[in-house]
């Protein structure tokens, strides 16, 4: 479990996160939702140690993440940021192999090659593994980066708006893959997502931010209520059910 306790972050006089406390359950998909500028991406970056906090603490499996070595931390948690542009031209396989660095320190062994093969196969990239990233579609490229995270073999996977610039089919494909990783492989996934219906359909748990604070958090079915959604987004929504699934309607 990841526990965030009284975490705050400011840039100059601008408050980004204000006394955030929340726990992220293990083996579930947790969606971070809320309007632009509420601190979702910053919270994800602090949890992944890419950004320093000003106050508070974050514990992973009861250990302060800022007391872990880089290698120890990278074996426990991986992150995919919004923008990923390698400075060199890489094939899919070369990119994915970077995910083994915490384990191999750049000296790939047979077990590392096996893990790479398994990750490529899981993400349906084996046949195009020698293609260059700049030759790929947006969906293929995102699957390649996700394969790099998988081969890192961490229990915790953080994704910052991974559906950006993807069409509907590829977005659904990514979310189904994440659901499989949580349900069948026990991965703990924290994802920043803007489309509320993806959160409703695939997340087990929702953390909603507003005004740089946690407004609501809990199981998805407890958060997806019309009043709470209006509180979160300042937008009237209707909730409908179809085949035991809920959908949020905000076009009127």
UniProtKB/TrEMBL annotation:
Keyword field contains Ion transport: yes
Subcellular location: Cell membrane
GO biological process terms held by the UniProt record: iron ion transport
Predominant subcellular localization, coarse grouping: membrane
UniProt-listed InterPro entries: AAA+_ATPase (IPR003593), ABC_transporter-like_ATP-bd (IPR003439), ABC_transporter-like_CS (IPR017871), P-loop_NTPase (IPR027417), Siderophore_ABC-ATPase (IPR051535)
PANTHER family assigned to the protein according to its UniProt record, in alphabetical order: IRON(3+)-HYDROXAMATE IMPORT ATP-BINDING PROTEIN FHUC, PETROBACTIN IMPORT ATP-BINDING PROTEIN YCLP
Organism whose genome encodes this protein: Myroides indicus
Protein name as it appears in the record: Iron complex transport system ATP-binding protein
Keyword flag Repressor: no
Pfam families: ABC_tran (PF00005)
Cellular component aspect of the GO annotation: plasma membrane
Alphabetically ordered keywords of this record: ATP-binding, Cell membrane, Ion transport, Iron, Iron transport, Membrane, Nucleotide-binding, Transport
Residue span, ABC transporter domain: 2-236
């Amino acid at each position: 479990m990841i526990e965030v306790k009284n975490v705050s972050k400011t840039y100059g006089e601008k408050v980004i996160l204000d006394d955030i406390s929340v726990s992220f359950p293990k083996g579930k998909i947790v969606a971070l939702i809320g309007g632009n500028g509420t601190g979702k991406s910053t919270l994800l970056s602090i949890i992944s140690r890419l950004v320093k906090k000003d106050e508070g603490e974050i514990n992973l499996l009861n250990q302060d993440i800022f007391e872990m070595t880089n290698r120890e931390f990278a074996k426990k948690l991986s992150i995919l940021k919004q923008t990923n542009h390698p400075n060199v031209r890489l094939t899919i396989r070369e990119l994915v192999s970077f995910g083994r660095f915490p384990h191999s320190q750049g000296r790939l062994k047979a077990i590392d090659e096996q893990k790479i093969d398994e990750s490529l196969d899981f993400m349906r990239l084996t046949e195009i593994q020698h293609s260059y990233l700049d030759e790929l579609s947006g969906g293929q490229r995102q699957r390649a980066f996700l394969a790099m995270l998988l081969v890192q073999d961490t229990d915790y996977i953080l994704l910052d708006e991974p559906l950006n610039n993807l069409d509907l089919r590829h977005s659904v494909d990514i979310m189904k893959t994440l659901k499989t990783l949580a349900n069948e492989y026990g991965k703990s996934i924290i994802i920043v997502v803007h489309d509320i219906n993806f959160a409703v359909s695939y997340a087990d748990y929702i953390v909603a931010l507003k005004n740089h604070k946690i407004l609501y958090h809990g199981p998805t079915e407890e958060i997806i209520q019309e009043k709470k959604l209006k509180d979160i987004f300042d937008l009237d929504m209707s909730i409908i059910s179809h085949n035991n699934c809920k959908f949020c309607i905000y076009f009127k």
